[in-house]
Amino acid sequence: MKFAALFLLSLAPLGQAGSPGYFVPEHRVSGIGVARDDISADLLTARTDLMIQAQTFGIMREPLAVPGAKRITTDPKLQSIFRTAAERSHLPATLIEAIAYLESWGDPKAESITGPKGIMQISGATARSMGLKVVQATRYKVSRERVSFTKGKKTRFKTVTHKTPYTVTIRDERLMPDRAIPAAAVYLANMEQHFGGRDWAIFAYHCGQGCVTEMLDLTRRARGIPKDDVSVPRMFFSSSPVWNRELYQAIQQQMQRDYSPTYYFRIMRAEQLLALYRRDPIAFQSLSREYKSEFFTTVRAPHRLSVWLKRDDLVYRTCDDIRADAGKRLVRAFDRPDFFGYSLRLDPDRPADLEYYSEASPSAMGTLMYVAFETRRLFEEMHPRGEKFQPLTVTSLVEPVDAARASGKEALSHCSGHVFDLDYAGLPPAELECLRFVLDDLGWDGYVGFVEDAAGSLHIGCSPSSRDFFSSIFKDAE
Hints:
This protein has helices at 3-9, 41-54, 56-60, 65-74, 76-89, 93-104, 124-130, 177-195, 198-207, 209-221, 232-237, 245-258, 263-279, 281-290, 305-308, 319-325, 337-340, 354-357, 362-382, 401-407, 429-444, 467-477, and strands at residues 11-13, 27-29, 134-151, 154-172, 331-332, 342-344, 359-360, 392-396, 419-423, 448-454, 457-462.
């Protein structure tokens, strides 16, 4: 299913009801920010689909995405093992394949620096609970040293032998796919029975059973979650800094640890992508190329903006180029901080160029306005004691090449007019929390990308598929 088709499901023209005294866009993204407090079943389905599709970047940017898909789906021995594992566990073989794909790209000898090993990336403790054998033995390294000693008035020498113990692995069934894959599948099936849902079992495969026990309990006690719909998507989308804050903080803690709350969505997307490879390997390889950066060619794409922006987007080489495009592909930023929720602090080399630096594409300006709007209304709902909303500080919009190159590694993309920078160093703590939550919320569904550009600075832009929507936000303000 195409991302663009899913994108439209979550857009809701809500009208400009009431007037809080600041800009309220006529079109909004449903269920974002403070609006998470009323997510219907249909909206949850739409957000879940968007979240699953948004995982494509994290998977397809990896160099092993294509060879891993080929190994998983075409190796006859692995395919036989996956079928056996499915028969023993009564789980779909495609699900077991998806976990092996994300965990190791199908490499039976894969080892993590944190300890897990094998095609299913199983830790030592979990291996024992699965019934897998990890047998180790102690060996000794023998070394000899010639030392001197005094006997009477003479110096004599003798050879001293040292035995240094070390551990060797005699048998590690984690590295044997015919043992590890069925064991992991049965383990997953047992967790499905224990937690009452396959989604929670998948979550637990990455996060651990203790972690999921805690998260499941918090979800069951959360306000506004139907008792018959206690699912991982409900858990993920039913909290915010002001709505089910205890659950929100627990999710944030796990996200900072290893992003495990998103693991279920990644597995769902991996299953879809492997199905695509089976159906059309050429289309799969074409999709992989779409997630390669034109700017970071020797490493994987570091963030979404490096994939969304292309070299052909960097059209503003000089200030003359910016002047020529004013009123065409570029629009002037409104400078009304109290109304729009952002203030301009641009710093061109020449003061005379300030007028041209104060421009960006309509989609970039709409993204800025929308982020400011959602941040402000979430902040107001939070009612932080002793804090007042401060307009977000914009430090960069469009820039010519020379100025961009002088200001930092991410700044060259400003030559496109599609991105902007925010300085958050001076924001009150609660407002910064709201800003980060809104960016994450929009980012999880593929609307925006952002990266830390420098200390206290965020570099932000919207996805190509959402430019029309954010351009409509700018039109709402005209």
